[in-house]
């Protein structure tokens, strides 16, 4: 749960980080570039028949970054997740950080709330992100809410993600949700990024750490036990959100200062400059896949639209069919289907922490500077008591 003390520490840490940005720049570049992934996420095959996807599209000439809308609802004060509705045109979903409970909002392109929804039987320990996808079997929209924040790096025995069928009508309602529990194969992590592959329905979590990672969920999710998350690649320093392109050809990871687009873990396509925001928290692709949307916390906060670089859009060529996963999955007796399993396969990368995105020397440099920044954070905390 977010407290005033936590806010102070977060903002103090960001302030201290800004002071030492020049030092961190080298480490950040290493982290966001990563090394070539030894195995990729299932990319799916991009086809011209994909609904709402413009294959080979390029940005409109002269198009620039702009504010798409601002949240007008006074209840939306800490927008932490953002997703484009798969079913409703010009509708966007968001939710507040933990303290507001298991509630999300459907917001129109004018910034006005169209409906408010509550997840029945769900908890909101530390909601940090959301994703929208289409069920590969039914074609119906699916919303995912990630209760994955863990500021103590493993204090919680497991984390949760809630799956909800997208509401057919935009009227206030309480919706049934399916809860999936997860554990990391290598111990607890703080995380804020969640993304779901649009072709396979497979779920991924991106950790928020100095040396972050992309974790892959099992292709078949179970409700009767904790699902194991396996590391498949590096992630940038302090990732705050992630999202898949509508056609599955790329994914983006957001940090406080920039965004990086990848074709697979560690395989960078482009860095994308982000607008200066108070506390960058969310990112998503537009429905046509030609631009990114990013948001921040705060009352009346804006959602910005940033056109994707031409090299990203031109790189969206048909991708090879993924090979079956070589990672062993737990051997257990079959469970009855819940109707929520995600289909798909992939190749899991070896868990080599040296490939986590930051060289050892850079990590040492980061820690040395962070030690000095701790004094700044402590001073800010004392002055706000």
UniProtKB/TrEMBL annotation:
The chain crosses the membrane at residues 12-31, 363-381. Residues 316-354 are annotated as: Disordered. It comes from the Bacteria. Keywords: Membrane, Transmembrane, Transmembrane helix. Residues 319-333 have a biased composition (Pro residues). This is WD40-like Beta Propeller Repeat. It comes from Planomonospora venezuelensis.
């Amino acid at each position: 749960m977010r407290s005033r003390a936590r806010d102070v520490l977060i903002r103090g840490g960001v302030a201290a980080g800004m002071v030492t940005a020049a030092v961190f720049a080298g480490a950040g570049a290493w982290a966001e570039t990563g090394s070539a992934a030894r195995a990729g996420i299932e990319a799916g095959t991009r086809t011209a028949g994909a609904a709402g996807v413009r294959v080979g599209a390029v940005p409109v000439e002269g198009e620039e970054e702009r504010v798409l809308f601002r949240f007008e609802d006074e209840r939306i004060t800490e927008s932490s997740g953002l997703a484009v509705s798969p079913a409703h045109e010009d509708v966007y979903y968001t939710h507040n950080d933990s303290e507001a409970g298991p509630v999300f909002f459907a917001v129109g392109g004018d910034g006005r709330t169209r409906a408010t929804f509550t997840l029945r039987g769900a908890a909101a320990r530390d909601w940090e992100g959301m994703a929208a996808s289409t069920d590969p079997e039914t074609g119906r929209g699916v919303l995912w809410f990630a209760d994955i924040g863990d500021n103590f790096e493993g204090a919680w025995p497991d984390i949760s993600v809630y799956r909800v069928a997208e509401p057919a009508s935009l009227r206030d309602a309480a919706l049934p949700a399916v809860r999936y529990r997860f554990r990391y194969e290598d111990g607890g992590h703080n995380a804020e990024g969640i993304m779901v592959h649009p072709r396979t329905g497979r779920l991924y979590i991106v950790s928020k750490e100095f040396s972050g990672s992309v974790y892959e969920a099992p292709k078949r999710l179970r409700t009767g036990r904790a699902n194991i998350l396996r590391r498949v690649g590096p992630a940038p320093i302090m990732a705050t959100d992630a999202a898949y392109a509508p056609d599955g050809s790329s994914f983006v990871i957001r940090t406080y200062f920039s965004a990086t687009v990848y074709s697979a873990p560690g395989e960078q396509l482009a860095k994308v400059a982000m607008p200066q925001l108070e506390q960058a928290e969310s990112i998503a692709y537009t429905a046509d896949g030609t631009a990114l949307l990013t948001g921040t916390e705060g009352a009346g906060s804006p959602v910005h639209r940033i056109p994707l670089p031409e090299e990203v859009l031109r790189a969206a060529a048909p991708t090879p069919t993924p090979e079956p996963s070589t990672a062993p999955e737990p051997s257990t007796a079959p469970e009855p289907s819940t109707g929520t399993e995600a289909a798909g396969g992939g190749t899991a990368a070896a868990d080599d922490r040296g490939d986590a995105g930051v060289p050892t020397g850079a990590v040492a440099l980061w820690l040395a500077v962070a030690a000095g920044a701790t004094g700044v954070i402590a001073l800010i905390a004392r002055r706000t008591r």
